[in-house]
Amino acid sequence: MNRSHAAELDRVPAPALVIVAVLSVQLGAAVAKSLFDDLTPTGVVALRLLFGGLVLGLLFRPRIRNRSRAELRLAVAFGLVLVSMNLCFFQAIDRIPLGIAVTLEFIGPLGVALIGSRRSSDFLWVAMAASGIALLAPGIGEGLDAAGVAFALAAGVLWGAYILLGVRVGKAYAGPTGLVLAMGVGACVALPLGVGSAGSSLLDPALLAAGFGVAVLSSAIPWSLELEALRRLPTQVFGVLMSLEPAIGALVGFVVLGERLGIRAVTAIALVVAASAGAAREARTAPAPPDV
Asked: In whole angstroms, how large is the CA radius of gyration of the chain?
């Protein structure tokens, strides 16, 4: 990022940067969902990781030479978790509303925030999040696709693994180098699957441009903004702001995709947001790495 862009970001309040980053990620997910009929979820994942890795690589110019085998194995593991998480999440939003999918997926960062904690207040956050998820249970198999719920929960587990691996990657690699390598690994895995799923549609210029837009919205923009916000915000505050993601996902799903949620789903989202914010505020560990 050049100095002029950095100077412009300095004038924006740090909390606003986080909110815009989260909004960008959810807009990217909404655009991705609109492409599923033409490209399939797997095809969109392939384009997202391919273009996202290229954009981040050009933006941050990571150095990847002279890496040890252990570092490279770590990047490969990170990439495999990353592509699996993306595949599960996109399969989820293909079947259930965006806001509900993000809410269920948030069991990952919430679980990581609570790992190893012994505070009595943590039982409140667990109970609150569990209550929110339980509110969604009666709709499973009726108005709420069971496979979509399963994919969202799987994406949440993988998000938790992504966070834990991300801490190790952050120590092994400077800046975004580890993430760029992981996105390259993920793209190598997703591309053959995407070609098998979407076929010649992946060569359509308009669809390629839309896939590039998804990558920019979901990777380049939020990553840049979140890096700047983390430089200026305490990690707990950053975590609390990131906890708004399920609510923002529901709002984007309503405005962009016309996904209406009943009072039960809205209450569930509010409970999970409150639980995540409470856990993040009290957490001693670093917040979740940015969404990619």
From this structure: 18
What one-character DSSP code corresponds to residue 140?
B
Strands (E), 237-286: none
Which tens digit of pLDDT belongs to each residue from 137-174? 777 767 789 999 999 999 999 998 988 888 888 888 87
Long-range contacts of 222-225 (CB under 8 A, 24+ apart): 222/21, 222/22, 222/24, 222/25, 222/290, 222/291, 223/56, 223/176, 223/179, 223/290, 223/292, 224/1, 224/59, 225/9, 225/17, 225/18, 225/20, 225/21, 225/24
CA dist., res. 120 & res. 171, Å (int): 31
Strand partners, 140: 144
The pTM of the full predicted model, rounded to 2 decimals, is: 0.85
Contact (CB, 8 A) for 135 and 267: yes
Residues with Cβ < 8 Å from 233, sequence gap 6 or more?
14, 15, 18, 241
Kindly state the tokens that stand for 247: 């609510």
